[in-house]
Write a structure and sequence with these properties.
The chain is of the alpha/beta class and about 450 residues long. The chain has one domain: TIM Barrel (Alpha-Beta Barrel). The chain has 18 helices and 8 strands. Strands 1-2-3-4-5-6-7-8 form an 8-stranded parallel beta sheet, sandwiched between helices. Helix 7 links the parallel strand 3 and strand 4. It starts with 19 loop residues before the first strand and ends in a 23-residue tail after the last helix.
């Protein structure tokens, strides 16, 4: 299905200097810094946890070379350590001033901030499986609230440039609604959808007060690859013949669970019951969306399914998508850009994916070169590029448009340079050439 293109005029100043908003970034404190945000009665347990954390993972989280070694070729890992870790380019994870220096150098005006692996009491999934470790439900809830309070302070450093997203558990509905109201008052701009227990799926009526609160407060609910899923079941693939083989099998499974959120929202009636609810699907790719919506529309209109389902799902799935869903397409591939009209030009938002290795800022010569290799190579007009780079994200997350106008003129790259096709292949590997529909690597 081709979504209608928004025809609102793009601010002409925005087409001179690109206003870039990253819809996918991550911010985390150093692990020990969570302590002051945790309830006093679990701090002793947290102190014990810190010893295990220090032995298995540093404050760099999944940017830790020990973790990256299972994924990257040795020469790529050496480049990562030399060019990123040792110069302190990951310090922006916990230091907002360093983060702003880095954003300025990349020409990024604003950023949406998700959590990453490494909230309180959490190790990376691979390490947790190896140790047979898992935090308790109580620790997980306390960790989420601690992160939200730390993140609110981080974002206050420059509220016009950061849109922080709160961690919210759906297990206790009343507590979730309370946390959502707190997040709104604290200046956060949305929530991150969790993983769901299959016994209480996201479309269960018990969750309606949560959706209603988000709708009333105009806070988008964001799903993110791995962090959000329709299931909590995870299989480790430590028995695979090679670590990279196991990584690929696990990624495919995790992305399936994340993408299923769209089906649960539509067929579960959430979007019908809450027509003003905004949903953002982040870091799942976007090339899979047209065929998925076509299949859903066929089930609704062309298959032999009972027509009485229309008493619950009153419009076509693609119409719900057009009304309420956006795509944190994250690291655009060249093919996604070429198919932007079919995917939905008014839906797609760039994500830089700091501090992950595959992000536009790290895997290659930088964000500008990445944009030239995708938008420039695809011959995207300036008005459409402005929408993909920032206009949609400004609208979805409620950024201050006037403030970002000025910032774009100050640090934004010249749009003509962004759209200048490269004369050489700067990305022999990585997401620039990712096939359409692939959400993992």
């Amino acid at each position: 299905m081709t979504n209608p293109i928004v025809t609102e005029p793009v601010n002409q100043r925005a087409t001179k200097h690109a206003i870039i908003v990253s819809s996918d970034g991550h911010a985390m404190p150093r692990m020990a810094d969570y302590r002051e945000y945790l309830p006093a009665d679990i701090r002793r347990d947290f102190d014990d946890f810190l010893s295990a954390h220090a032995e298995n993972l540093s404050d760099l989280g999944i940017g830790d070379p020990r973790y990256m070694a299972s994924r990257l070729d040795p020469e790529v890992l050496e480049d990562w350590v030399r060019e990123v870790v040792e110069p302190g380019r990951l310090d922006g994870l916990w230091d907002p001033n360093r983060r702003l220096e880095f954003l300025n150098s990349e020409g990024i005006a604003a950023e949406v901030l998700f959590p990453d692996f490494g909230t309180a009491f959490e190790l990376s999934p691979r390490v947790e499986r190896a140790l047979g470790y898992s935090r308790t439900p109580e620790q997980a809830v306390a960790a989420g609230k601690a992160h939200n309070r730390w993140l609110a302070e981080y974002c206050r450093c420059t509220p016009t440039r950061f849109a922080g997203l709160a961690i919210v558990s759906f297990d206790d509905v009343d507590a979730a609604v309370e946390e959502i109201h707190w997040a709104r008052e604290a200046g956060l701009k949305g929530i991150v959808l969790p993983t769901f227990d299959e016994a209480a799926p996201l479309y269960h009526p018990r969750n309606d007060p949560i959706w209603a609160a988000l709708e009333d407060l105009e806070l988008p609910a964001n799903s993110h690859a791995v962090t959000s899923s329709t299931t909590r079941r995870q299989k480790g693939y430590g028995d695979a013949p090679h670590p990279a083989c196991g990584q690929t099998m696990m990624s495919a499974e995790l992305f399936f669970g994340t993408r299923q959120i769209l089906a649960h929202l539509i067929w579960g009636g959430v979007l019908e019951r809450h027509p003003r609810l905004k949903i953002v699907l982040t870091e799942q790719g976007s090339g899979w969306v047209p065929s998925t919506l076509a299949g859903m529309d066929y089930s609704y209109s062309g298959s032999y399914l009972q027509r009485s389902l229309r008493e619950v799902i009153r419009i076509k799935p693609s119409e719900y998508f057009a009304r309420q869903i956006y795509l944190g397409s994250s690291i655009f591939s060249r093919e996604e850009i070429e198919l932007r009209q079919d995917i939905g030009l008014d839906k797609m938002m760039l994500g830089m994916d700091y501090p992950h290795h595959e992000g536009t800022w790290a895997a290659g010569p930088g964000t500008l070169a990445y944009l030239r290799a995708t938008l420039g190579s695809a011959g995207v007009p300036a008005g459409e590029a402005a929408q993909l780079l920032g206009e949609t994200a400004i609208k979805v997350f409620g950024f201050d448009r006037r403030a970002l106008d000025g910032l774009g003129r100050e640090i934004g790259p010249d749009m003509a340079e962004v759209l200048r096709p490269p004369t050489e292949d700067l990305y022999p590997r990585g997401d620039v050439k990712k096939p359409i529909g692939v959400g993992f690597q």
